[in-house]
Amino acid sequence: MPAQRIVIDPVTRIEGHAKVSVQLAEDGTVADAHFHVTQFRGFEKFCENRPFYEMPSLMARICGICPVSHLIASSKACDAILAVTVPPNGVRLRRVLNLAQILQSHALSVFHLSSPDLLLGMDSPPEQRNIFGVAQSAPEVAKDGIRLRQIGQTIIEILGGKRIHPAWVVPGGVSAPLTAEKRDRIAALLPDALAALARTSDRFRGVFQQFPEEIASFANFPSLFLGLSGDAGGLEHYDGPIRITDSAGQVVASGLKPENYHQFFGEVAEDDSYLKSAYYLPMGYPAGVYRVGPLARLNLAAACGTRRADQELKTLRAFAGTPLLSSFHYHQARVVEMFYAVERIGELLSHADILNPHVRAFAQPNQEEGVGVAEAPRGTLLHHYKIDSNGLIRFANLIIATGHNALAMNYGVKQVASHFVRDGHLSEGALNRVEAVLRAFDPCLSCSTHAIGQMPLRIELLDADGTLVDQQRRLV
Amino acid sequence: MKRTVVIGFGNPLRGDDGIGWRAAELVGARLAEKTVEIIQCHQLTPELATCIEGAPLVIFLDASVDLGPGETSQEPVKKMEPGAWSHHFLPGQLLGLAEYLSRKAPPAVLIQGGVLSTCLGDTLSEVAAECARKMADLAITTERLSRLSQVITIT
Q: For a tag site, which of A207, A401, B1, B108 has the least CB within 10 Å?
């Protein structure tokens, strides 16, 4: 059999536009596999010459799913340019907003995008394999997913004025303090969220155990794990130095300052993708592969620091071990983090100073450059800006979570394709698993739309010379 | 008793496409909060299915480029299969999802207003502003008739 290449284009139920190519050897085994991001955004370039204080609002437009993450990382980069210390209550309120974003984004990933695979089965008919199929077969699950996302979005709206692209986070803090009325409205939503999460935990616990083959093959490999580290080994989503651990749980590096990221992050532009792949510089490319996001954050933390989340984490670790090595466990990690987000929001709202009106520091630019970092739902997000003497942007560099995970996703695609592609044949169920390993990472390619369920899909089989030998097309 | 849900949707940064938002705002100004829940949004999303669950009536307010500028139309919304796309729903698809989730879709009407311009801008044309008032009148009349019919049914 001649060597062949299988192309999956587009990859579905992810945030954005991408394709996968699988190169087969002459014996029909998988020789190589790649995840290609096919959309181009250009934000780093076209923000040049804009006033630095516009950056948070501009950068939030990168994405409709995680605008809050960009808003926060961008504002933190501008905080550094102003060289101000954000008032403690401004930090608290930013944290609440960030956690609400994590709640709504994780709910979207777990329920809207991945629950069809988990509840209906990887091999279920593709026309049913979507959130509406879940709504038909398990309406209570779909309802909880929709409700959890709605609660996260509602909190964002209460704080920031809008569910998508709020502008409330500004350089120096937030633009307005919290009122008692808003605090109480947010607090009233939390019991409902915890109840929905408790049902989710009960429902999904057995479901996750039904996928031993996927757990074994979904990017299950030793790698580094990277993320922000909090005090006392707890989960951290907003601030602090960067920590890196290995697959044995040993600390490889800690106390890394985000502003020195050039010393430990390498970035490489691949010929076949608009996504930059990041790697741990001291280990080189591609050996310095690491993972970020909920899985990595749990691997970095000794515990979450809230009661229910820690119970869930304990259960997960009893099932999957420590550290969590299979990227399939990203799904469970998201459930743990949703518990944490709701509980932590409750704690923050209960803080005695949460209504303190001092939430913003004012200054003119005092530095010519600034780096801001935060944990987005999908992982560590870094913004780096340089300005001129007029405060205009001269340079911008963004390293997003999906870029951090790019090498690991490539590894995952190759591993799952090697496991499920047999004799050069990619069945529909195997094709879905190639996509599902990507969905486990929940890559965010800054999309404005995405399809679910039965997707427009094209698979091409090319021989070693690149000649098309077969193709399958499935249209909506 | 559950409230009537009024959903004005469109893009208020595209001129008259914001007519649904304006009409919803006018309805909210004239009807008591205990009577109606007002929702303004850019597009219909799955999350709205839980908002309309159990509502005695849902009123969708939207712009139309098929109607002549300033014209209005009102029609009942028929339930549809949600389909495979989740970023943009038609009113009927939202009802279909609501039925999946709660076994029953609420009754609903779609009131549309013909627009003049959907160019960039955050204000309505005079024609659309007047049309929004007519849409609000229609929505309020519909809501009152609906409540009346419920009272008659109960008694």
A: B1
Which mean pLDDT values do the consecutive 10-residue runs of chain B (155 residues) have? Answer: 93 96 97 93 90 95 97 96 72 93 93 96 96 98 88 60
**Closest residue in chain B to residue A129, using alpha carbons only:** B84
Contact A143 B50 (CB under 8 A): yes
CB A193 within 8 A of CB A148: yes
Cβ-contact A105, A245 below 8 angstroms: no
Confidence class of residue A470 from pLDDT cuts 50, 70 and 90? low
Residue-wise pLDDT tens digits, A230-275: 877 889 999 999 999 999 999 999 999 999 999 999 988 877 777 7
The residues facing A370 across adjacent strands are: A385
Tell me if residue A321 falls in helix, strand or coil.
coil
CB count within 10 Å of CB B48 equals 23
Alpha carbon distance A228, A298 (integer Å): 11
Of A131, A139, A147, the CB nearest to B86: A131
Q: Is A448 helix (H, G, I), strand (E, B) or coil?
A: coil
Interface predicted TM-score (ipTM) of this complex, two decimals: 0.77
A187 contacts A349 by C-beta, under 8 angstroms: yes
Residue A52 scores a pLDDT above 90: yes
Residues of chain A with C-beta less than 8 angstroms from the C-beta of B97: 132, 135
* Residues on chain B touching A143 (C-beta within 8 angstroms): 50, 101-102
Spatial distance between the Cα atoms of A309 and A299, rounded to a whole number of angstroms: 14
Closest by CA position to A420, among listed A129, A127, A114, A216: A216
- Summarize pLDDT for A152-210 with one digit per residue, the tens: 999 999 999 988 888 899 999 999 999 999 999 999 999 999 999 999 999 999 999 99
Among A139, A146, A449, the residue with its CB nearest the CB of B47 is: A146
Q: Please, which residues 118-137 of chain B have a Cβ atom closer than 8 Å to chain A?
A: none
Q: Are A471 and A459 in contact (CB under 8 A)?
A: yes
Choose the mutation target among A120, A132, A149 for the interface with B, i.e. most B CBs under 10 Å. A132
Torsion angle of alpha carbons A22, A26, A31, A37, nearest 10°? -20
CA atoms within 13 A on the CB side of A248: 3
Q: Amino acid identity of B4?
A: T
Residues of chain A above pLDDT 90, percent: 67
Give the gyration radius of chain A's Cα atoms.
Answer: 22
- Specify burial of residue B129 (Cβ count, 10 A radius: 0-12, 13-18, 19+): middle
Domains and CATH numbers, chain B: 4-154 (3.40.50.1450)
Report d(CA A47, CA B155) in Å as an integer.
Answer: 64
Q: How many CB atoms lie within 10 A of CB B122?
A: 10
Distance, CA of A341 to CA of A345 (rounded, Å): 6
The reply to whether residue B82 touches residue A454, judged by beta carbons under 8 angstroms, is no
Q: Would you tell me the crossing angle of helices A88-107 and A67-82 to the nearest 10 degrees?
A: 160
Q: Under a CB-based contact definition with an 8 Å cutoff, are residues A293 and A69 in contact?
A: no
d(CA B111, CA B138): 8
Interhelix angle for A406-420 vs A428-441, to 10°? 160
Q: Show the domains of chain A with their CATH numbers.
A: 4-39+423-474 (no CATH), 55-361+398-404 (1.10.645.10)
Window B:89-118, CB contacts with A under 8 Å:
97, 100-103
